[in-house]
Amino acid sequence: MDEPRYPKGDDPSGLSIRTAEEVREIRVEQGGLRELVVRIDERTKRMDKELTDLRREVVTRPEFTVVRLIAFGLVGLVMVAVVAALMSSVLPQ
Fold first, then answer.
1. In degrees rounded to 5, what are phi and psi of residue 43?
2. What is the DSSP letter of 6?
3. What's the CA gap between 30 and 18, in Å, rounded?
4. Which pLDDT band, with edges at 50, 70 and 90, does 45 fall under?
5. Which of 23, 32, 41, 61 lies most in the core, judged by the most C-beta atoms within 10 Å?
6. For residue 34, what pLDDT is reported?
7. CB under 8 Å, gap of 24 or more: what pairs does 35-41 form?
8. Residues in Cβ contact with 56 at an 8 Å cutoff, skipping those fewer than 6 apart
9. Interatomic CA distance for residues 70 and 93, integer angstroms
10. Alpha helices in the chain (DSSP H)
11. 59 Cβ partners below 8 Å, 6+ apart?
12. Which of 18, 16, 14, 15 is nearest to 5 (CA)?
C-alpha cells in the first residue's frame, strides 16, 4: 500500500505533493521550533525580571544630581576655608 500524500503549499501549480515522511519531518521541526520559542520566552521573562531588579538597585542620574551638588558644595567650602587659612597665615596683617 502506498503511503498517503499531502499537497505542498509552496507550489503554485498544486501538482507537487508531500509524502507522509516529509510531513512527519515538518511536524518534528515545528515541535523543535515551539520548544525554542518557549525557551526564548522564558529567558526574556527572566531578563525582564533581572532588569526590573537592577533598576531598583541603581541610582539614576536625576537622583544622583542632588548628591553630587551637595558633595561639590561641601568640597568647595572646605577648599575655600583652606585657601583662606593659608592666605591669612602667609599675608601680614
1. -65, -40
2. E
3. 16
4. very high
5. 23
6. 83
7. none
8. none
9. 34
10. 20-57, 61-90
11. 67
12. 18
